[in-house]
Write a structure and sequence with these properties.
The protein is α+β, with helices and mostly antiparallel strands. The protein folds into five domains: about 1-65, no CATH class; about 75-120; about 140-315, Nucleotidyltransferase, domain 5 (2-Layer Sandwich), CATH 3.30.420; about 325-390, no CATH class; about 395-475, no CATH class. It is about 40% helix and about 15% strand. It contains 20 helices and 14 strands. It has a five-stranded mixed beta sheet. A hairpin with a 5-residue loop joins β2 and β3. It is elongated and about 180 Å long. The protein starts with a helix and ends in a 32-residue tail after the last helix.
């Protein structure tokens, strides 16, 4: 009533509706409704402010505001009848504007402002989650990491390439480091971490990154799965990885505001020769500008706080370069080899068709089966293979490795003439092309007995006939035994013996 009395008093003083609305903080249409109702009740500008009695104001209010027995308007009651349906639509992700349209199709015609007020007060629509400031950790304990877009950098060919910043922010001191890069690969991320440890002069105990693919394979609120290579890197450097949850910037608030700050204060408006120049100037900007500013929360210089409180608490810098491994899950082929980086490596045991876990670095290849290391190979070039003869079956080792001496020894076991015949077969400019003939010769031993094959090889060697097919025919036709010796009877001539005179040469006179 006090507000309405003041509204009418200003009007009685001769002010216009627009000015009354501005001075009273009320909508101009609302002022017009109250003034028109007061005029219908007999209020006149000539009568002055004495006309505004409590009885008059009660009549004016009753004429403008409809009676609400329960304190709610009719539109409010109409919307309340659709509360269940509105809640279901909100759960489906529909916007309130779309819900207003759907209610109109159902014949529920209300203003959007009334619908919005009802959804906010009764259904909790648009309520923001209450957040609290988290206390800072101990000095040197945590560093938060985030990727952010900085801008475009023109390369040598005149093309603009996107530059992203891998940003590190120390939680306690707010000291930050920016590592510009073009890609978010594992190699670039680890290179950024190495540059950050060098910049800070030590390693933090805990790293809180976002769910970048180079670090997190599968995001989860309580049990995230880290990338195997990055987990191995974290173990080698002695820090723990605690990824933030998906779409939860409050898990790493110290670094969130550093992304737009680095973009606007460092990168914007600058000209860089190349990416190396950008990285060098980024490190200098972090030391001289970002590190020496007065932080808005701590009201201190981050670089000074870091040097005094945090740097002594960091773990020492690594003294060795990290060899980034690659993890894969190759399938064992029928030839008992797996393919990694287009090279082949042998696998021990009968694991054909199984999936192994392989770790590959610049020097070695390690193969695991169900968590157990089963083989270690040196790295070979693409297109080559590394086969350990012990990984292959004994009967196939000589063939797979083209071991001619082992093949000849295997033949000599069955007989000296068989071994000599195998050596004669392999005596060739390209001896491995004759290995199949030796295997055929060994197959004849399984079909016939070794003594028969040895005798056939002896007779073939005497005749200097080096042909395994001939040995096969001899064994098949039973020609391995020598024919009995026959002596001609005296006084009998052979059927085809000719007289010596038939060979005499006659000379013409």
């Amino acid at each position: 009533m006090i507000e309405i009395r003041e509204m009418l008093r200003l009007w009685l003083e001769g002010r216009g509706l627009r000015e009354v609305a501005r001075l009273s903080g009320t909508d101009r249409k609302t002022v017009r409704r109250y003034v028109e109702r007061a005029q219908s009740c007999g209020v006149d500008r000539e009568g002055g402010a004495g006309q505004l009695t409590d009885e008059l104001l009660t009549a004016v209010i009753a004429g403008v505001r409809r009676k609400r027995p329960n304190g709610k308007s009719q539109a409010w009651e109409t919307i309340a009848a659709q509360s269940g349906q509105i809640t279901a639509w909100l759960d489906q992700g529909l916007t309130l504007t779309k819900i207003h349209i759907l209610l109109g199709r159902r014949g529920v015609v209300v203003s959007y402002r009334t619908l919005n007020r009802y959804a906010r007060t009764e259904l909790g629509f648009g309520k923001r989650r209450v957040t609290v400031r988290v206390a800072d950790c101990e000095p040197g304990s945590e560093v938060q990491v985030d990727f952010g877009r900085l801008g475009l950098l023109t390369d040598a060919e005149g093309r603009g390439r996107v530059v992203k910043g891998l940003i590190f922010t120390a939680v306690y001191s707010r000291h930050m480091f920016v590592y510009p890069t073009h890609r978010e690969t594992l190699g670039e991320v680890i290179a950024g971490f190495e540059a950050a440890w060098t910049f800070f002069g030590g390693v933090f105990a805990v790293v809180i990154p976002d769910n970048m693919k180079a670090i997190v394979d599968r995001a989860n609120a309580t049990e995230p799965r880290l990338n195997d290579s990055f987990r191995e890197y974290a173990e080698s450097r002695g820090f723990v990885v605690d990824p933030a949850r998906i779409r939860s910037p409050q898990d790493k608030p110290r670094v969130e505001r550093c992304v737009p700050y680095a973009r606007s204060n460092f990168f914007a408006g600058e000209q860089f020769r190349d990416l190396d120049d950008c990285r060098e100037r980024a490190a200098r900007w972090c030391r001289e500008v970002a590190g020496m500013r007065v932080h808005g929360t701590t009201r201190l210089h981050p670089a000074e706080v870091f040097a005094t409180d945090e740097h002594p608490k960091l773990k020492p810098l690594p003294d060795t370069e990290f060899d980034i491994p690659a993890w894969a899950h190759p399938k064992v082929a029928p030839d008992r080899h797996v393919q990694l980086n287009r090279a082949l490596y042998s696998v021990p045991g009968d694991l054909v068709g199984q999936r192994l876990t392989a770790r590959v670095d610049t020097r070695t290849v390690k193969l695991y089966w169900r968590g157990e290391l089963i083989k270690v190979h040196p790295v070979v070039e693409p297109g080559r293979r590394h086969t350990d003869p012990a990984d292959l079956p004994a009967e196939l080792t000589a063939y797979a490795t083209r071991d001619l001496e082992a093949l000849q020894r295997k033949a000599s076991v069955h007989g000296p003439h068989i071994g000599a015949y195998a050596a004669a077969v392999l005596e060739h400019p390209l001896p491995w092309t004759k290995m199949r003939q030796v295997y055929r010769l060994l197959g004849l031993i399984r079909r016939h007995n070794a003594e028969a094959v040895d005798e056939a090889c002896r007779r073939a060697l005497e005749a200097e006939a080096v042909n395994v097919g001939l040995i096969d025919r001899m064994l098949t036709r039973g020609l391995t035994e020598a024919p009995p010796a026959t002596t001609p009877q005296p006084g009998t001539a052979s059927r085809f013996v000719r007289d010596t005179g038939d060979f005499a040469v006659r000379r013409s006179s």
